[in-house]
From TrEMBL:
Residues 2-209 form the GMPS ATP-PPase domain. It catalyses: XMP + L-glutamine + ATP + H2O = GMP + L-glutamate + AMP + diphosphate + 2 H(+). The chain holds residues 210 to 543 of 543 of the full protein. One of its GO terms (molecular function) is ATP binding. Its EC number is 6.3.5.2. Pathway: Purine metabolism; GMP biosynthesis; GMP from XMP (L-Gln route): step 1/1. This is GMP synthase [glutamine-hydrolyzing]. GO terms for cellular component: cytosol. Catalyzes the conversion of xanthine monophosphate (XMP) to GMP in the presence of glutamine and ATP through an adenyl-XMP intermediate. It comes from Trichocladium antarcticum.
Amino acid sequence: DWTMQKFLEEAIAQIRQKVGEKGQVLAAVSGGVDSTVAAALMKEAIGSRFWAVLVNNGVMRLNECEQVHRDLSEALGINLTVIDASKEFLDGLKGIDDPEKKRKFIGGKFIDIFEAEAEKIEAAAASDPAKAGKIGFFMQGTLYPDVIESLSFKGPSATIKTHHNVGGLPARMTNGQGLQLIEPLRSLYKDEVRALGRALGIREELVMRHPFPGPGIAVRILGEVSPEKVEMARQADHIFISEIRKAGLYNQISQAYAALDPSRAVGVMGDKRVYGYIIVLRAVTTTDYMTAEAFNFPWEFLQRVMNRIVNEVHGVCRVVYDVTSKPPGTIELE
Ligand code: XMP
């Protein structure tokens, strides 16, 4: 795509000019489309003077951290540090059943962990004679719609947005340390970010990935989170998404996931009466995520997913499909 090639060249030139010969840039990445494309662009522009950090918060999807490491570090050559803080997050989530409190805890803990790592990276960056510059910039994968939204005065999107990006930008990153913000995707819409991702050689499956909330599986378990519940939701989600991919439906759906309702339902397994958790499947189509419709799956598809989940996910005895539109429902269950 010619326009994207041109954009790419110009974006690289701009980044180099802004960052300078020795400047270094720090960012948090999630494995999502925006932060991955932005990170790949930074790497093209300034190589290992770009430092990416991925925090494993214990509520990511099956094998997600390993996959992000393969995609960013191995495939794209991005200078990536993965921090496994899953135990800290899961321990801290104990006893919290309010959705907003879960978000707040995860956002706050994320900032603590990220800042501690940033200090280590700053020390390493300053002492590397090959680079000999300090971290002067903080990169974010902000898109054009985010820019407009934060400029707009009120409206539901403004309040909704505040809890979307985990914690937002750590204050220290822009104030105390005097880090300058760098947002290389600021002028792009989502489909342009995807085109740019392709131009940067990012694999198609990643470029087309559904969005995933920062608080992850924690807001896909109704009420209190435990490692066992996360594991069940994770297994069920993996089955659901794999079947969606196999059926060739992934790109027709805007967002899909499996959630866990920890109420116990009665079931029969073999000839025994059992109590098991309920898995809620959710899949929606939307253009702006402000309104959405439930996806119309073929019946046989839902039966196949139900069969696999009750057979393969220990502790689950029911599977339901959420047909609620937004409004009145939201896309996430919490
Ligand atoms: P709702 O549930 O509000 O979701 O209809 C709209 C979109 O926002 C995502 N979402 C979040 N993303 N942190 C995030 O990073 C959050 O706390 C959060 N809550 C919802 C949701 O996945 C959907 O894409």
